[in-house]
Known about the structure:
The chain is α/β, with parallel strands linked by helices. 36% of the residues lie in helices and 14% in strands. The protein is built from 8 helices and 6 strands; from the N terminus they run E-H-E-H-E-H-E-H-H-H-E-H-E-H. The longest helix has 16 residues, at 120-135. The protein binds pantoate. Residues 24-26, 54, 57, 124, 127-128, 146, 149 line the site of pantoate (PAF).
Amino acid sequence: MEIHATIPALRAALKARQRIVFVPTMGNLHAGHIALMRQARAHGDTVVASIFVNRLQFGPNEDFDKYPRTFAEDCRQLEAAGVDVLFAPTEADLYPEPQQYQVDPPEIQNQLEGEFRPGHFRGVATVVLKLFNIVQPEVALFGKKDYQQLMLLRNMTRQLALPIKIVGGETVRADDGLALSSRNGYLTAEERLEAPHLS
Ligand code: PAF
């Protein structure tokens, strides 16, 4: 697996690649992410993943600083899943200057999860559009676990006429029904017992 941190290096590496399929992530990968990587293989010739914890989609009192970062283990899993290229920029690589031009999604961004996380979907849409411009995939995959995110990104892609097909991946669950999530690690033993009631 090739690993690139800068936009020019990634663009150069992808120049000769055909039918790119893209799976963006924030790292701390679990079986749900890996299922997306394997699913991606069926949609093209080159599977590109990204790992970037995107500050723009975190509120001021959210968990940006403590979000789990497990880069070495993530690379090991991506390699085993057959990913061809990993884009892993630093903040300075992706946002060399303040990102003043942003994508402002319609009212859906203030509903459901958005009601509790003002600005979250604006940050998601902005980084995903930027990553799409850098990677230029034909297909991109997002988990159905974050269904509102999947719908919002699909609508953005259609309305901005991006030549990218958006594919949803099934939710992967623990044996007791809890959807796998990087943030499950925050749960206390008591909360972990209670959480499967959500499913
Ligand atoms: O679902 C995620 O992990 C993130 O919201 C995404 C799509 C990688 C954008 O930062």
